[in-house]
Amino acid sequence: MRVLIVHNILWSHYKAALFTELAQQCPADSELLVVQLAESEDKYKQLGKSGLIDHDYPHQLIHKGSLNSLSLSKKAKGLFREIIRFKPDIINLSGYYDPVYWLIILYCQIRGIRLVLSNESSEKDGNRNGWKEKFKRTIISQFSGFINFGSSSAQYMQSLGARPSQIISQHAAVLNNRVVSQVYQTAYSKRNHVKADYFLPTYNFVFVGRLAEEKNLPTLLKAFSWLKTHEPKAHNWGLTIIGNGPLRSLVEGKSDQDIHWLGGHPWNEVPAFLALADALLLPSHFEPWGLVVNEAMVCGLPVIVSNQCGCVNDLVEDGKNGYTFRPENMLELAVALQKFVNLSETERTQMGKHSLDLIAPFHTTPVAQEIWQGFHRIMSSTELRS
């Protein structure tokens, strides 16, 4: 069995970890190739270089540069060159929105090559009515299997016509767990000294992300202000903000209010700042998933997450490893913070342990196992061949 995976950018450290695990688990009678379209995207310039990431899997890079500068013709030529050379039995596409992918779908139908879709979209992603959904149903019907970020994205695929038996995985929102855990553990051993260096209070919530409108930062700041005003036990709690972006002026220089902005940092440094925190906050108006929640949970942190983030159905059990809230309701977030502040140290520790339990299925090892098992089912299924 020959499997060719088409992926957008080499920069994706979390995908690199999964591809590396897939290569390690590749059966002796199979072969794997990942075709990366480009090195990165313009929006990731501040997040670190792909050179920091281990790419221990067979791959070909079509374009040495930004995906934004890759022409449609060069993309098509590069992809079909690799497809014709590699002669795959299965092609795993990273989406269905690109016209080049439509050509690949047609080519696979003609040549009898099985198609698998890696899907991050869910019902929450936007307006799900009209001709676009009908077109998606037509596209989805051409695929034999689906690798999904979570249960909500798996449900969305089924709403478009995918059969439950075609769901290969609903745990594909993975991280480079090894790097996250190592950086976190090293930093945690020094956390008291580092907290003193940054003049952080005893306990801290942390926000990690781009300081942009969709992250709902003003509501977070109002909720934290409410907490400090209305909850006596919050006197020794702070809010640490990691990130950069257009709303930077809202948080820069507010350390006198127990709000500490520590700047933007590359992906591989973020776990060191999670080591300074007692819980993660993600108040976004919308997130397709919210991988920073995975990062926090791999580090054993409780999480307080907007119910408009794609990960909440899978990763947040209200009252057990954190809390959820409606992002448009400042008071709901404030009350969630208040509940957390009033927990005992033992209860907060237990929440962190529950986070570790919930995140375990999203480790690269079991996800890669699910994917290879799914590939084998697709190749052996007479139902899918018909």
Q: Summarize this, please?
A:
The chain is α/β, with parallel strands linked by helices.
Question: Can you put this structure into words, describing what you see?
Answer:
- The chain is an alpha/beta fold and 386 residues long.
- The protein folds into 2 domains: 2-174 and 363-385, 3-Layer(aba) Sandwich (Rossmann fold), CATH 3.40.50; 177-361, Rossmann fold.
- Helix content is 41%, strand content 18%.
- The chain has helices spanning 13-25, 72-86, 99-111, 131-140, 151-159, 177-188, 191-197, 217-230, 270-274, 291-298, 312-315, 330-341, 345-359, 364-380, 382-385; strands at 2-9, 31-40, 59-66, 90-93, 114-119, 145-148, 167-169, 203-208, 237-242, 259-261, 279-282, 303-306, 322-325.
- The strands form 2 sheets. A 7-stranded parallel sheet has the order 3-2-1-4-5-6-7, sandwiched between helices.
- Helix 1 (13-25) crosses helix 14 (364-380).
- The chain is elongated, with a radius of gyration of 22 Å.
- The model is unreliable at 46-51 (pLDDT under 50).
**How many strand units?**
13
Q: Please give the CATH class of the largest domain.
A: Alpha Beta
Average pLDDT reading: 92
Low-pLDDT residue intervals, each spanning 5 or more residues = 46-51
Largest sheet strand order: 3-2-1-4-5-6-7
What gyration radius follows from the Cα positions, in whole Å?
A: 22 Å
Helix segment count?
A: 15
Total individual domains:
2
User: What CATH architecture of the largest domain would you give?
Assistant: 3-Layer(aba) Sandwich
* Cα end-to-end separation: 19 Å
Q: What general form does the structure show? A: elongated
Helical proportion, percent range? 40-55%
Label the structural class: alpha/beta
